[in-house]
Amino acid sequence: MSLATREGLKRRYPVKAATKLTANTAILLVAGLATPIAMVAGLSGGVSTFEVDNTAGADGAAFVEVIVGEHKFVNSGDITRAEVGTTAYFVNARSLSKVNTGGRPAAGKITQVDEDGVWVVLGV
After folding, report:
1. Which pTM does this prediction carry?
2. What are the pLDDT digits (tens) for 22-72?
3. Fewer C-beta within 10 Å: the chain N or C terminus?
4. Would 5 be classed as within a structural domain?
5. What is the CB neighbour count within 10 angstroms for residue 71?
6. Are residues 16 and 42 both part of a single domain?
């Protein structure tokens, strides 16, 4: 028997210690804690809905709300329509690449490529 069901696109994650997250920015989950996009291994958590300042707090002292699902980012220039269905990688919090160089974290599956950006599915 299921304890609950969830159909919405919002999630809530604890924030890593000494971390500030800005609104409307992609976040990573590293060891279950929300962190900004950086060249570290982590899971794509979603896009933050508001700013959270945990710079003076311990791990999990603050929480961030994120929206999972399809989000559009800047194409670094190497993603074409041929990459639909493959994984995109964060170059930074705003742009994506098809290449995982330098330990770039995975953003998610590419679902569409437009002239002005790339759509990917974010969230765990």
Report:
1. 0.89
2. 999 999 999 999 999 986 778 899 999 999 999 999 999 999 999 999 999
3. N
4. no
5. 21
6. yes
